[in-house]
Amino acid sequence: MRKLKFYIAAAAIAVCLFVGTPGTQINADAASNEYYIGGMTAGFTLSTGGAEVIGLNEVSAEDGLHRPAEDAGIRIGDCICSVDGLTVKTINDLNSALALSGGKTVTLCVKRGGDTANVPVTPVKEKKSDKYKIGVLIRDSLAGIGTVTYIQKDTLRFGALGHTICDENRNSLDISNPIVYSCSIVGVNKGMRGKAGELRGIFMGEQLAKAEKISDEGLFGTFSKNYDFSRLETVAAAPVSEATIGKATIYSTVDGTYPQQYEIAIAKVDTNNRENKNFVIKVTDERLIDETGGIVQGMSGSPIIQNGKLIGAVTHVFLNDPTRGYGIGIENMTKN
Questions:
Q1: 37 pLDDT above the threshold of 90
Q2: What class does CATH assign to 58-134?
Q3: To pair with 20 at 20 to 30 A between CA atoms, which of 123, 154, 304, 315?
């Protein structure tokens, strides 16, 4: 398993750095329901849907050094989906398929961006391991930490993050089979001007939810009925059009497993923004500034409450000022 952008078991699904379709009302179903306020961090593990190439290297054989994958045109970022028709979802799947080749040329089904191509590659038997290899470094899953925004009280449907999931180069990822675990925050790398901070946490092993969809607005699914909801507050949701400049609060977990309430100010409201940036927010709570420096990676998805209603979630941090960032309107999340 490879880290998403940061450290596994001490990680944070990124609050996007600033270097949704707009909406003016909550849909009818959402408006009639109460929402549990989130703010708790959760650990996410996600399958890349294949064997993603994250590096190219040499294979040392009896007759010298070879670079089969690179010579065949394989690039970093490609996803190997099958070998000679055999589905590849994990590193072990790829190794097993290459073992069956016996050194004969195989056809890789490779996905690059939105395109798919068949690429012939001839595996080479590595001298040291006596195994057939093609000279690639692979990841088949990702892990990180993010924040749950809301849980619908009657259906237990949840939303988290408020933005899509990106790799370390901020490219959107084609991922599948996400699993959501309980998580405890054990430390914070404070944010500072020019450098984003991050929450450091550990997975607790308990599965919190079944995640079913990842979109530009976040990660969505159904929470476990066994979760203890007794400590969570409930609120109604309000559209961006009801938000005003001025005081608001966010719920975030920056230590342990339970969220705390922190004061912020909404500096700008943009009902028509199409990039999940409906709010400009500023952290004003000195407790949070002292602990984290402001908004850090892992706080992505922290619910924003104003006038007793859920209006959105934190999504971005300004790299030149970690006390400031963006938020998405809740109607853009609940549409999922």
A1: yes
A2: mainly beta
A3: 154
* Maximum pairwise Cα distance, the chain: 73
* Full-model pTM: 0.73
Distance from C-alpha of 263 to C-alpha of 112, rounded to nearest angstrom? 44
- Residue 273: C-alpha distances to residues 198, 269, 277, 278 (Å): 26, 9, 6, 6
List pLDDT tens digits, range 220-277.
999 999 999 998 999 999 999 999 999 999 999 999 999 999 999 999 999 888 778 9
Rg (CA), the chain: 22
Choosing from 163, 252, 302, 316, the catalytic residue is: 163
Answer for the pair 181, 49: CB distance below 8 angstroms, yes or no.
no
Tens of pLDDT, residues 163-214? 877 655 454 455 566 788 899 999 999 999 988 899 999 988 788 888 888 8
Q: How is domain 2-48+145-334 classified at the CATH fold level?
A: Thrombin, subunit H (2.40.10)
E strand or H helix at 95: helix 91-101
142 closest CA partner among 25, 3, 308: 3
**Active-site pick, 78, 285, 302, 316:** 285
* Catalytic residue check, 300: yes
Find out whether 329 and 279 touch, Cβ atoms under 8 Å.
yes
- Is residue 96 annotated as part of the catalytic site, yes or no? no
